[in-house]
Amino acid sequence: MGETGYGVDPAILSSLAVQIKQVIADGIELAIVVGGGNIFRGMKASSAGMDRAQADYMGMLATVMNALALQDALERHDVFTRVMSAIEMQQIAEPYIRRRAVRHMEKGRVVIFAAGTGNPYFTTDTTAALRALEINADAVMKATKVDGVYDADPKTHPDACKFDELTYIEVLNRGLQVMDSTAISLCMDNDLPIIVFNMETEGNINRALKGEPVGTIVRGDSR
User: Is 0.85 topped by the overall pTM?
Assistant: First the structure.
């Protein structure tokens, strides 16, 4: 969305594509889950009176639009991609099949997961955790507009404290806005680390993947 307040900012897409291209050039297999909040937010529409399931389906379609926009940006930077949708729409995306997704990644393609889980009442946070587990990913990288997890909103609380590391239980008990509780619980039950970082700082994706201290890492008690 960038600074436009709505829709897709080509400059943001291009910046992301450049960063992702660097990651793929290093031989890292990458899959991406896209949200749709820049176009339509199901939860917001539901709170305004729309049927929750109907609103969520509209939100899923918004993620497909973003997936196609990201695919276009990546392929303009010579990155091979596949969009896989949880809702079948074969003219524009492949249906999500776990083994096919893994095979695409093994061939060096970036897989973009669209349409959430295909079910209402599940966020794209939960989709990210679920798909990461299905493809046996090493970590979930949560891209945000802040440089990690804070004990309060740093935009409205200048004295907010940033965490370098947290456990899943700490996130749940404190009610920290990392990912929704379903996603956190999935990661906790399967010991899948979560790295929360600022996607607007160029190079952060590569730094995080190389193990450099970027943002906040959420994991279990055992180190």
Answer: yes
